[in-house]
Design a protein that fits this description.
The protein is α+β, with helices and mostly antiparallel strands and 385 residues long. The chain has helices at 10-28, 43-46, 83-99, 121-124, 165-177, 220-226, 250-254, 258-265, 302-305, 308-311, 339-351, 381-384, and strands at residues 69-77, 114-119, 154-160, 181-190, 194-198, 201-204, 239-248, 317-323, 329-336, 359-369.
């Protein structure tokens, strides 16, 4: 019997009921609620559907401007469970959810919903210890991570402009997986309003007030070089994700003057322009100095310490979502085709980066984002058969 035909789990019922009640409260508070007539369609209902199938999974570069809301669910597989059949089922469920045909959507329009699935190193290693995604993340400074929040077998990233979809879709996918998976932790987040940083490229502000994610592999050529895995065939079309949840010391950062805050980042807070001048999208001139010999971009500024050219690595596609539970902070996600792009960058930041003293990492994991799938090639089939 298909799981969609069974009674929903208690967790799915509670998640969906909470979303439905919230929707009812919002509708009841409308000043026009007493007037009869058809409701205006929501922005999410009118949003263009994002295809779930293709060479790459949706939710990384599609849609091009990331949706405003995200829910990341990290879980473990039962050790007796074969990943292949479970992933194939999840892929079919994702297709139904994004098409709006799964009854567990409870009548919500999928809009621009995307679901992206990754598998952790424990699942990748049996297929090949040298495969991309087989290595665990090392430990870094400024971490306060409880054991359940480090690592994991399965990442389910759910994104949509309609925040109501997130818990409903998560409940449907976890219901489909049943007792084959055990949830470790989840984190929801939202992005601020987008700011144009180049033609066709936008980035949001973060909780510290600065534009986040300016540098990245934005062109097709850059993405083929630094984002997507080219091989082996089992992983080609996938990518590697790093997931880090960080608390931010907003009070201490806000106590700095604007000039001091800009020195931390190496960019103007209002515009995002590097302290060395130029445009938002232009890289900082790290050698530029004042007449008295001081670097315009301080030696410990974030844009200097994390500069990919200085570190000697490729570009990473960074997605940061602001959070307020369990504490104000960021859910940082980076996508890259070489884990060293992240590890070498953070190692250099660990040595001296003015931003790190305002952060504490409370969850950390890396996942192989599986290649795209379709009806003939189920999700995960290249790696797990």
């Amino acid at each position: 019997m298909n799981r969609a035909d069974r009674h929903p789990s208690r967790r799915a019922f509670l998640d969906a009921t909470g979303a439905t009640v919230a929707a009812g409260l919002i509708a009841g508070c409308s000043s026009d609620s007493a007037r009869p007539g058809p409701p205006a369609p929501s922005a999410a209902a009118m949003a263009t559907t994002v295809p779930a199938t293709g060479r790459h999974q949706a939710g990384v570069t599609l849609p091009q401007s990331a949706q405003r809301n995200l829910l990341a669910v990290v879980a473990d597989l039962d050790t007796a469970v074969a990943p292949g059949p479970l992933l194939a089922e999840l892929g079919e469920t994702i297709r139904a959810l994004t098409a709006g045909s799964d009854p567990r959507l409870l009548g919500l329009s999928p809009g621009d919903l995307t679901v992206t699935v990754g598998v952790g190193p424990r699942l990748v290693r049996p297929a090949g210890a040298a495969l991309p995604g087989a290595a665990d993340l090392p430990r870094f400074s400024r971490e306060r991570i409880a054991p359940p929040a480090r690592g994991g077998d399965l990442l389910i990233q759910i994104c949509a402009d309609d925040a109501l979809l997130l818990p409903v879709v998560a409940a449907a996918l976890l219901d489909q997986a049943g007792d084959r998976v055990r949830e470790r932790w989840r984190q929801s987040g939202r992005r601020g309003a987008n700011v144009s940083v180049a033609e066709g490229v936008t980035a949001p502000r973060n909780l510290l007030g600065f534009i986040d994610g300016i540098v990245g592999p934005h062109t097709t050529a850059e993405q083929e070089r630094d984002l997507w895995l080219a091989g082996p065939p089992a992983v080609a079309g996938g990518t590697l994700a790093v997931l880090r949840r960080m608390e931010l010391d907003l009070t201490r950062f806000a106590a700095l003057s604007v000039a001091e805050q800009e020195a931390v980042f190496g960019r103007r807070r209002a515009s995002g322009v590097p302290l060395s001048g130029g445009t938002v999208a232009a890289g900082p001139e790290l050698g530029a100095k004042t007449p008295d010999g001081r670097y315009l971009v301080p030696v410990d500024a974030h844009v200097r310490r994390a500069n990919p050219t200085v570190v000697g690595v490729g570009l990473m596609l960074r997605r940061s979502y602001s959070t307020d539970e369990p504490a104000p902070g960021l859910l940082f996600i980076s996508f890259q085709n070489d884990l060293r792009t992240f590890t070498a960058t953070l190692s250099r930041m660990d040595a001296s980066d003015a931003l790190l003293p305002f952060t504490t990492t409370t969850a950390s994991a890396t996942f192989l984002i599986l290649p795209g799938f379709d009806e003939q090639h189920p999700l995960g089939s290249g790696l797990f058969g």
